[in-house]
Design brief:
alpha/beta; GGDEF domain-containing protein
Length: about 120
């Protein structure tokens, strides 16, 4: 289901832009954390034969949980996303989804696909 949603978003973008789709993957945790690595392996396996420009970011929020850290992350990604547009954004776990909620004015109508959300409620998006 996740892959179907992802590809429908990318297919629409590919038709409108006629170029390699740009995809941003934002993981809440760090590379090397078993959960994050298993999700990234699944993404890689499903998208391996696709031509796309995929960027992968790790928020490292398992090891850094202070309010100041999250404020700095938001500022960093606010700068990054003001300079670059993506055709789809895939987020894993609550902290990455929360960051995208804060950055909603910048990402506008970019499809955000999410997985690994605890205690999901429709108000999360």
């Amino acid at each position: 289901m996740l892959v179907a949603l992802f590809w429908s978003a990318c297919a629409w973008s590919e038709l409108t832009l006629a170029q390699e789709p740009k995809v941003l993957v934002v993981h809440s945790y760090h590379q090397g954390f078993f959960w994050t690595d298993s999700i990234q392996r699944g993404i890689d396996q499903q998208l391996d034969d696709r031509e796309l420009d995929m960027r992968v970011l790790y928020l490292d929020s398992k090891r850094n949980q202070s309010e100041q850290f999250f404020t700095q992350l938001e500022s960093l990604y606010r700068t990054k996303l003001s300079d670059e547009r993506f055709d789809a954004i895939l987020v894993t776990d609550n902290n990455a989804l929360e960051l995208m909620q804060h950055l909603a004015p910048l990402i506008k109508d970019t499809p955000v696909i999410f997985c690994g959300i605890n205690n999901y409620r429709p108000s999360f998006h």
